[in-house]
Amino acid sequence: MAAMEKAKKEAPEMLKKVKVAAGFSLGEYSALVFAGALTFEQGLKLVKARAEAMDAAANDPKNKGAMASVSGASDAVLQDALDKAAAAVGGGKKAYIANYMFPEGRTCSGDPKVLEKLCEIVVPMGAKNAKMLAVSGAFHTPYMQPAADALGKALDEAPIQMPSIKVYSNVLTGKPYASVDEIRGLLKRQLCEPVKWEQGTKDLVTLGCTSYVEPGPGKQLKAMMRRIDNDAWSKTTTLEA
């Protein structure tokens, strides 16, 4: 959000040309602020409420979770490995695909033991790499339902309005937000469902977007864009905060 506020002052003419917005996970709030669905201050309040809700859920001893990254495996192979890992651990423990970042680039979230088993078996099943991440929560999975419930209260009270441009959700693909109620509902669901960034980015390419701007810090989205669509990557610029 800070990068977009800076750009409004330093590159206002460029921003006037933007017709579509999207954001990865937390970045979806930045997209909604940029599109006028939320003020900067309202966006910060919701981001704070979201962070507090996720932290509380992640630190609940009964809800212990973790994350792992897996590359080089098809979704079918990865899901098969997740199922086998869950069966090996037993006790009803599960893990899920949490982020569809780029082709055969995924992060998984869920029970730590299931993810450790996943990292052990998925490479022999065909993946190139698999490793545990230094993350203490099973984000973007049903493990975050307590956080979604808490965030839902803040979203219900937030003065959200329809964005001035199309904003695409991480949860649904193929179409922008259609109503304020849908914004509230999908932001809540986003905590418990996977981020479909690869699919959503392909939707933007299909729309015929001629250039792409990534607000900083960092260039992670541009790096993922290169793996999703090389032509779109060549048309992507980064704005540092």
TrEMBL record:
GO terms for molecular function: transferase activity. It comes from the Eukaryota. Residues 1-241 form the Malonyl-CoA:ACP transacylase (MAT) domain. InterPro entries: Ac_transferase_dom_sf, Acyl_transferase_dom, Acyl_Trfase/lysoPLipase, Malonyl_transacylase_ACP-bd, Mitochondrial_malonyltrans. It holds the Pfam family Acyl_transf_1. SUPFAM superfamilies: FabD/lysophospholipase-like (SSF52151), Probable ACP-binding domain of malonyl-CoA ACP transacylase (SSF55048). This is Malonyl-CoA:ACP transacylase (MAT) domain-containing protein.
